[in-house]
Amino acid sequence: MDLLRFATAGSVDDGKSTLIGRLLYDSKSIFTDQLESIERTSRAMGSDYTELALLTDGLRAEREQGITIDVAYRYFATAKRKFIVADTPGHIQYTRNMVTGASTADMAIMLVDARKGLQEQSRRHAFLVSLLKVPHLVLAINKMDLVAWSQDVFEDIRHDFVEFAAKLDIPDLTVIPLSALTGDNVVSRSENMPWYQGTSLMTHLENVYIASDRNLVDGRFPVQYVIRPHSNRFPDYRGYAGKIAGGVMRIGDEVVVLPSGLPSRIASIESASGPVNEAFAPMSVVVRLEDDIDISRGDMICRPHNQPKVSQDIDAMICWMSEEPLRPGQKLVVKHTTRRARALVKDVQYELDINTLHRNEQAEELKLNSIGRVRLRTTIPLLADEYHRNRETGGFILIDEHSLRTVGAGMILSV
Fold it and tell me: What is the DSSP string of 92-118?
């Protein structure tokens, strides 16, 4: 079975946590003691029904306030596919958490309250999904039970969102009316909306095609660790461990090691289950080469005629996650694939208004949860691709060199 990662998105109280709870409940992915615990908590809160949102809202502050603060990851599976779901916050002050949850997702589920329609935060999250290049988006129009299952309400919201999404880069959009509270169109088709001819949300999750989303053209293998046993049993063993970030690697392929530029061939490939003849993204493997080359963590194995760009000057969209603003002249640490480098902020080119998509070229800094285009200069070259081409080699994080806290997430626009 393959694995689908998806994240929820949307405004406050649109029902993101309840929807995930419903998916877990109806797919029989909740342990009996978990269900009994949330039933007791629901009664203690004075609720007339089981609050399935409590399955993901695990922090005490989340339960007390009825909101999602941190990203909660849950795991479940059906007969067709395994799933990792990230429940992300809807409040604007937790935008950075939403970016974290969606950064590795194959799909985003954008929830909209049928009573309220599109909100400012709905548009904000839709833009972030587009910016993060999440390949598939589901617009889930929730709480249809509270608008009497109205087709007119559904069509109005669908039209508004499609009109807004036309300004964004969303390659695959599916719109589903549902009720997370009652389970209509979540796992099974709803009898309350006979006018809807599409599939349920679970059916769509099980069947959406994701194999072509990954870059299988550009061979990229960032070296994470050099395996050198230093034992009599393996006197000459030298393997390079890591996760394939793009392309397909086969035994006998010609490769080149960056940044040195030295050529070689692949002698063997080993996975967790044993030797294999080929490996592809996102497999984690150990690669051995025919030649003894000086290779260390942060180097990259790729094709001789298909290489990433090697540069110290990076233009990127930055989502700033720190209360201390990002300003020109600031020094940070860049974590890109398996390579670390110190970086200098050369320029803030503009700040982007997520609601209007207007570029403020007069901005001199990026504040908490702001997004803007920034130019960086690194102390050593990065081996990078544009983010739209490869999310693995085109993305990075920024780290404060004093506190070691993650303060920003970046998507490379040009090198």
Answer: GGGHHHHHHHHTT-SEEEEEEETTT-S
